[in-house]
Design goal:
- The chain is an alpha+beta fold and about 120 residues long.
- The strands form two sheets. The chain has a four-stranded antiparallel beta sheet, with no helix packed on it.
- It starts with a helix and ends with a strand.
- About 25% of the residues are buried.
């Protein structure tokens, strides 16, 4: 009986976790890796890798991160915690930001015109 109870509890927890990650909801308290992106990081995936599975760049520190050689569509996942946002910016050094990615969300975006990504404290 204990094995059945444990198994049902594990299934319930797994279903709740998948629902939270799948919705990418702003209030979801999701932690841990997401599509290979470590908790607390913002990840960029190779061009046209769909679904996202193995990031080509991982950013940890707040502030601007300049990009180079990124063309075409890429997944950008914001797996930061605590409500931190990431922004896609047309200028180097985090200027002319055009797209906001809330924590626990991602976007499939043409990075050709994007020159930097910022990681911003909540």
């Amino acid at each position: 009986m204990r094995r059945i109870t444990r198994a049902l509890a594990a299934v319930g927890i797994a279903a709740a976790a998948l629902t939270a990650v799948g919705t990418g909801g702003a209030g979801a308290a999701v932690t841990g890796d997401w599509a290979g992106c470590p908790s607390g990081a913002v990840c960029v995936y190779p061009q046209d890798q769909n679904p996202a599975s193995s990031p080509s760049a991982v950013y940890w520190s707040y502030g601007a991160h300049n990009l180079s050689g990124q063309y075409g569509n890429h997944w950008v996942l914001n797996n930061q915690t605590g409500g931190a946002h990431a922004h896609l910016c047309r200028g180097y050094g985090g200027t002319d930001c055009v797209y906001d990615i809330p924590a626990q969300n991602g976007v499939y975006y043409d990075l050709g015109p994007i020159d930097s990504i910022t990681l911003d404290r909540p």
